[in-house]
Amino acid sequence: MDPRCLIFAILLGITSCASQPPGEFVPYYEVETRKPYDEVLAELEVAIAENNFRITGHSRVGKVIRDRGTKNFPEYDTIQFCNLTEAKTILLMSPQAIRHMPCNVVTYQFQGKTVIRSHLLPTDTDNKALNEFSVRMNQVLKKMVDFAAEE
Fold it and tell me: Mean pLDDT score of the chain, rounded to an integer?
């Protein structure tokens, strides 16, 4: 056997057996609705503002693909948002938490429904204060998704 293949096989075996470090799994919250897509986006913007976050980016991926010639391509959007006070709090607790920022929500159309999905913060780290912060923030994120989906 080629030594490179043997090394690759060994490394693949080691990495497939490695356990996932606490806090590395990024959970999500997802809701489906039959509410019109544009209403969902508008409701997300309201929910973000009402919870004292600011939109930092909005990518209308589906629209851009349609604009480039793929007719009838479904809607796909990502909205990024942040609250600098909350950002400061979490970063003082854990500089590594930057990988979870900004908050993000995606919306897309699938099988006649609008899907709304947001990444949640991990709550199983070795840092008790960070876990408590994450539980509180996850409740806010879920509330915003639910508000946008409510018919």
Answer: 86
Residues forming beta bridges with residue 118, ordered by sequence position: 29, 105
Name residue 133's amino acid: F
Predicted structure pTM score: 0.80
Nearest of 85, 101, 95 to residue 127 by alpha carbon: 95
d(CA 50, CA 146): 14
Q: Which two structure tokens, joined as six digits, stand for 100?
A: 């979870």
Alpha helices, DSSP H, located in the chain: 3-17, 37-50, 61-67, 84-93, 128-149
Question: What does the H/E/C string look like for 132-145?
Answer: HHHHHHHHHHHHHH
Domains in the chain (CATH in brackets) are 25-149 (3.30.310.70)
**How many Å apart are CA 42 and CA 114, to the nearest integer?**
13
Q: Looking at residue 26, what is its pLDDT?
A: 64
**Please, are residues 32 and 59 in contact by the beta-carbon 8 Å criterion?**
no
pLDDT of residue 100: 87
Structure tokens at 108: 């897309």
User: What pLDDT sits at residue 101?
Assistant: 86
Contact 77, 62 (CB under 8 A): yes
